[in-house]
């Protein structure tokens, strides 16, 4: 049997297989509330061993893109409860990705106020999705942020904890801290950007302090085995520049997380999006430094997912884009059925097209006219 199809025990959570649906923002939440379409979309994909939700804001302050969902109001929590019930009905498991974008935001989303970050430096050549000068929604350059005061950092940690508690109340099996892809935790960890002189800047451990304080605070409230974290070592998205002790920073974090008995660490390999990503050599070093469940996502196909599991370099294999256009991805892997191509033009457009309307393979075959001679 393909190792991807084997069941896997992740702490006290049983996964039906080792295929993970990676978190994907789809900008379908007009009102920031998950709705019936969201429920259908995730229900269709519940064949994954584990679904990780799209990035979900922990607070209004954490928002950087219009039409993305949150988990800080009663309506949002009600919406997510419908989604998790649907996924559980289908036998799936689901974690919520908890998101604060930090500086990847725009003043029009914050009543004219700047977004927050480790330092007051804007991300160059990086767009968020907000209101342009004409008041119309669209891609706009990320605004100049303000640096968080030392005592404010704890407030953001507290917002993560509240969101985590609410996610569990909404029926999620756990939460994934979005520590990847240039967002708020990356903005603290990155030594080229973070020039703070307080306990959240400078040394490696200082730059990791905010991340570890948030992990610990969440773990103490909802249990460490309900907490996962996503990281993107060597990720260059959103103006994350190289820095001196880059490899050491990620391996230090790996060792720190190892001691904490988490649900998992999820590595986001950006090779498909930027020139640099996670080499196999680095993956091996990370694996040695981190002794818990590891997920790797980024440009994997069935063969590379199987190979990495067989080599022991990852426990679970994450798939993003393949899940957009193949709701029944696991069944396609199981049966060797071909994958449907993704429509990149409808990824973030809102509306029904390109969201929950991709057919399963069985539906595809049914709707194909039989040729007669
Ligand atoms: C449409 C889209 C939205 C995404 N949104 C998120 C997100 O909300 N959070 C996140 O951590 N990564 C996000 N990603 C990155 C994916 O989780 C994944 O790492 C990436 O697509 C590479 O995996 P793939 O090659 O299997 O698609 C997104 C990717 C895509 C294509």
From TrEMBL:
Looking at the record, the residues that make up the NADH:flavin oxidoreductase/NADH oxidase N-terminal domain are 7-338
Top-rank taxon, per record? Bacteria
**Alphabetic keyword roster:** Oxidoreductase
**Stored Gene3D superfamilies:** Aldolase class I (3.20.20.70)
The cofactor required is: FMN
Record keyword Glycoprotein present? no
Which CDD domains does this chain map to? Answer: OYE_like_FMN
* Classification via SUPFAM superfamilies: FMN-linked oxidoreductases
User: Listed GO molecular functions?
Assistant: FMN binding; oxidoreductase activity, acting on the CH-CH group of donors, NAD or NADP as acceptor
An example Gene Ontology CC term for this record: cytosol
Q: What family is this protein classified in?
A: Belongs to the NADH:flavin oxidoreductase/NADH oxidase family.
Q: What protein am I looking at? A: NADH:flavin oxidoreductase
User: What is the protein's species of origin?
Assistant: Caballeronia calidae
């Amino acid at each position: 049997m393909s190792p991807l199809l084997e069941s896997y025990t992740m702490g006290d959570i049983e996964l039906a297989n080792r295929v993970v649906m990676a978190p994907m923002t789809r900008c379908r939440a007009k009102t920031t509330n998950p709705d019936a379409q969201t429920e259908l979309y995730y229900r269709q994909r519940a064949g994954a061993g584990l679904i990780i939700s799209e990035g979900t804001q922990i607070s209004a302050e954490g928002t950087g893109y219009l039409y993305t969902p949150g988990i800080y109001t009663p309506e949002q929590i009600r919406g997510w409860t419908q989604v998790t019930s649907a996924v559980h009905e289908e036998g799936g498991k689901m974690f919520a990705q908890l998101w604060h974008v930090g500086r990847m935001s725009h003043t029009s989303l914050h009543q004219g106020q700047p977004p927050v970050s480790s330092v007051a430096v804007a991300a160059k050549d990086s767009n968020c999705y907000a209101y342009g000068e004409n008041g119309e929604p669209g891609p706009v350059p990320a605004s100049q942020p303000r640096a968080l005061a030392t005592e404010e950092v704890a407030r953001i940690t507290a917002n993560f904890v509240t969101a985590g508690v609410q996610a569990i109340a909404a029926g999620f099996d756990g939460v994934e801290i979005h520590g990847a892809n240039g967002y708020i935790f990356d903005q603290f960890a990155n030594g080229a950007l973070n020039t703070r002189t307080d306990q959240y800047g400078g040394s490696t451990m200082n730059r990791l302090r905010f991340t570890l304080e948030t992990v610990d605070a969440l773990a103490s409230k909802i249990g460490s085995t309900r907490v996962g974290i996503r990281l993107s070592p060597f990720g260059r998205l959103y103006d994350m520049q190289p820095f001196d002790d880059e490899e050491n920073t990620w391996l230090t974090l790996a060792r720190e997380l190892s001691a904490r008995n988490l649900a998992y660490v999820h590595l986001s390999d950006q090779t498909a999006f930027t020139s640099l990503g996670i080499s196999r050599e680095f993956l091996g070093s990370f694996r040695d430094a981190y002794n818990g469940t590891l997920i790797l996502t980024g440009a994997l196909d069935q063969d590379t997912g199987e190979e990495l599991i067989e080599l022991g370099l990852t426990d679970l294999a994450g798939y993003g884009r393949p899940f957009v256009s193949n709701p029944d991805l696991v069944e396609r892997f199981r049966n060797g059925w071909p994958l449907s191509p993704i429509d990149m033009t409808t990824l973030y457009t809102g509306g029904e097209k390109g969201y929950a309307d991709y057919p399963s393979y069985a539906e595809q075959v049914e709707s194909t006219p039989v040729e007669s001679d």
